[in-house]
Amino acid sequence: MTQVIYDSTFEGWLTAVFEIYELKFEDVVFAKSEVSNTLLFSERYFVTTDFQKAKRVLKGLKEKLSSQGFANIYKAFLSDIDKIDETLFQYVKYIFSSTVNIEDDLSNAAVLAISKAAYLTGKESHRMKAFVRFKLTKDNLYYAMVEPDCDVLPLIEKHFKHRYADQRWLIYDTKRKYGIYYDLENTTSVQLEFNANSTSSKFLAEISDDNEEFFQNLWRQFFKSVNIESRKNTKLHLQHMPKRYWKNLTEKIPDLNR
Questions:
Q1: Together in a domain, 82 and 140
Q2: Is the pTM of this model over 0.85?
Q3: Could you give the CA distance from residue 2 to residue 120 in angstroms, rounded to a whole number?
Q4: I need a surface site. Which of 24, 68, 73, 110 has the fewest CB within 10 A?
Q5: pLDDT 10s digits, 188-224
Q6: Do residues 119 and 148 share a domain?
Q7: Beta partners for 145?
Q8: How far apart are the C-alpha atoms of 152 and 149, rounded to whole Å?
Q9: Rounded CA separation 57/12 (Å)
Q10: Cross-referenced Pfam families, in alphabetical order (predicted)?
């Protein structure tokens, strides 16, 4: 058994795939960034991300898959499902060992798992496009906090860059401790660390634009005015807007403690 340790990036994982084939490793498990203590007696192999090797793996996959099937590999990787890197490797092995396109062979466990993972990530990224709520700071930066189940920032970056091209903004994933920042020209991935007071009402009031509270209240009033009580369907509402998103939605903050 060989424990393959990579830097947790997609390119790092692709490099690992290349080197597993290159070195002819037979039985492997993946670990992100650091050694896993669950396999104390396994051999350890550390991968250094190599973009040329990653591109060669991608090229091979692109020749074997449809455009949707190719895109689903990246979406599945971003799903953050436990051991998705190992499932993806089984999927890749099946792809390269077959002479025909295998992406619709749902009788294969790896194919089915990747299809489900890609769907989950796609669904989560679609929701994030609708559920991001920006707030304005005193230095004219619009920021939003999100906590998606999947690592969807790479998938929604282009959408927000086009939609809010005339303003600086930051979307920060509190679960994964990184964000995407747009400076009116380019988007950049940024690593940030917040202290315990960063989400307190006092701290947010200090950094917020003077008119931000007014506009938030205006949005809440608008939301209430279009919500017809007699047509309220709580089950359907929760299906489209699960409660786990509410703490970052301006219109839902007053209802959190109910």
A1: no
A2: no
A3: 30
A4: 24
A5: 998 876 554 454 444 444 445 455 454 455 444 544 5
A6: no
A7: 172
A8: 8
A9: 11
A10: DUF4130 (PF13566)
Q: What is the mean pLDDT of residues 147-176?
A: 93
Q: Which letter does DSSP use for residue 47 in this model?
A: P
Grade residue 65 by pLDDT with cuts at 50, 70 and 90. very high
Long-range (24+ apart) CB contacts under 8 A made by 103-109 are 103/65, 103/66, 103/68, 103/69, 103/72
> Whose CA is closest to 47, among 31, 27, 24, 26?
31
Q: What percent of the chain is predicted at pLDDT more than 70?
A: 71
For 12, the token pair is 């790092």
pLDDT at 192: 74
Pairing of strands 169-173, 178-182: antiparallel
3-state secondary structure 228-258: CHHHCCHHHHHHHCCHHHHHHCCCCHHHCCC
Mean pLDDT across the chain: 82
Is residue 76 within 8 Å of residue 110, measured between CB atoms?
Answer: no
Looking at residue 210, the DSSP 8-state letter turns out to be T
pLDDT of residue 256: 40
Total count of domains within the chain: 2
**69, containing H or E segment:** helix 67-77
